[in-house]
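New to this. Comment on this protein:
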Amino acid sequence: MADKRPRPPLIGCSPLLRPESPKLCDLAGMSELRAWGEAFAQDLLAFRENRIRWEDVDPGVVVHGPPGTGKSTFAKALAASCEVPLIAASYARWQRHREGHLGDVLGAMELDFRAAESHAPCILAIDELDSIPTRRPGDDRQDWWIPVVNALLERLSGAIARQGVAVIGICNDPSRLDPALLRAGRLDRLIYVPMPGSGDIPQILRFHLEQAEVDRLGDLSLFSVSCFGMTGADLGKLVRDARRHARILKRTLNIEDFYAVLEPRKRDVDEDRRVAIHEAGHAVAAVRLKKADGMHVSIIDRGGGSGRTFIGSGHQLITRDSFTKTLTVLLAGRAAEEVLLGSISGGAGGGPSSDLAAATRAAIDAIANLGLGDTSSIVWYGTSVMERPALPYRGAMAKEVDVILSAAYADARALITNDATAVIAVTDALIERRCLAEAEIRSLVGGDRPVRSLVD
């Protein structure tokens, strides 16, 4: 007689988790993803109550964004909110299975999907999904990657069902994914997780703090301006470091511990003023040119010696006028040093995130891809021009980029000269308070003033 006893759920290659926290309601800085998760949780409940079919539930999603923004935490929060198990997989785990041969990798993938099915309803999270590259013709490892991608495609749809299993793909760069993974019925939804906004940072800090610490610290909104540009992971580390600082001093945690670990060393007075003038230049230019929405400015030295000016990236049509103003704001920090100090430093240059790099990329993109140059040429050079600008950045286009940047820098110098009093006011406030939010900057800058070189 056949054994009718239920079989125990299968054990996969990757760990099976039953998270209880955080919940979706605890997450901050990922409003679109959280909304998707809440809708999915409602659909999953309806499926479990036999009110809808599994075919009516989203099969999964690809979550992408910068490292440290909470993508993996979302998978745990979704499982906790849905009260279902989570299998935390990744290509690296699959490759470590047994000897790591191709058959072992495919076997590990199969084990995890079968384990997820045996625990259904279940969430299978595949971290670092972009480690599995697209099947490119001519790739010298096609004999490896084609079977891996094909096996994953088969498991995501194909002839093998995954009833009750939602797949969350997690990656930094979705452009590396094989397009077949993203087609309808597989992982057909892409959701970007941005860096935390100014309103999200206090909530993330409170999540990492004990309730007694939250009560003692009070309103964190002012301090959160100092943390703008930090990821959720950075903020968690900040809380740990601040606690350690308080323990060393044998006292309860207070806001001074956060400032102490956020800026462990102080610049000398002259360097600090130069950095403040540089950031004040950006800030005043952004206000005058109506590019200051969501702006935060900080001269807290979080490493590297420079300050930071963050400006929200609102959605608007890009015109020649708007991108020229953007260039002017990017170059206004360097201009402020030249106008107010009589010399310039290398603070505007450096790596790919520097002012000069960002301005150069914007100018190249405007000419090569957006058709916003001065010449009659409207040739489209393609997006690769942004990845490897040295190749097409020559000849007539190089000259035009130089002309555009030079004109924007002249505008920046004129603006700073015309508004030196406002730049100095913002500089002094930055030196005293270390960071300023948009409303404070607007108050210091005052009402609109004409910028002659931009309107003549």
Notes: The chain is about 50% helix and 10% strand.
